[in-house]
Amino acid sequence: MKSKKLLLFILAPYLFFAQTNIKADYVMINTFTKKLDKKEMMKEHPKMAEKYFDNAIELLMNNNDKKAVFQLKIRDSISSFLLQPKNENESGINIAYIISKVAGNYFTNLNTGEIINDKEFKGSAFLVTYTKQDVIWNITNEQKKIGNYECYKANTTYNDVFKDAKIESRPIEAWFCPSIPIKAGPYQFSGLPGLVIIVTDNKTFTTYLQNLELNPKDTEVEKVSEKGKKVTISEYLKYESKNL
């Protein structure tokens, strides 16, 4: 009898959150803070016009105050992660919003780990699918408090295509909160034993949790579009690299 009570106590947070609907806002900002070596950059990306290099760096440095806002909704173990409309009063270029719009929206089955990225590329719609094997996490013992959340650090990589049409891996650093045992997070970065509070792409762009609501009244999760062509992430990257 005691063992049953102990088990119930241990599992209580998980049982609670498993039945909890969630709505959360995430903010993506450009955190570019350092000068890149021009020669090294030209070597890595030979098709980049050198005359645009300084302008690009200046634009990044001056865009740190611009942001893109996403909303994460979870209901019955299904989540949607959607880019919210841009602030109409905002003037000038918003790099964070432009990149976020290109990235598209994400829909995740938290039970199976399958993720669908609804996005467009050169006017064509795609439903890019990820499985658990496409996002492999390395959970570390490093921990710190972020706001009110006690978090642990985890690392992974993801593949992307650059203007020289090469598929390259980028390092990802995430901090998740085990006391919120929901395997969700921004973009395709879910599957950790706790809600992802902050995720950083190679120290250049950062997406962080701004606010979190448990069991809000309007937690209907948006549905995936049926218009796109369904492809695996591997198939999509090969297609993009051939059509840049």
From TrEMBL:
<feature type="signal peptide">
    <location>
        <begin position="1"/>
        <end position="18"/>
    </location>
</feature>
<protein>
    <submittedName>
        <fullName>GLPGLI family protein</fullName>
    </submittedName>
</protein>
<dbReference type="InterPro" id="IPR005901">
    <property type="entry name" value="GLPGLI"/>
</dbReference>
<keyword id="KW-0732">Signal</keyword>
<dbReference type="Pfam" id="PF09697">
    <property type="entry name" value="Porph_ging"/>
</dbReference>
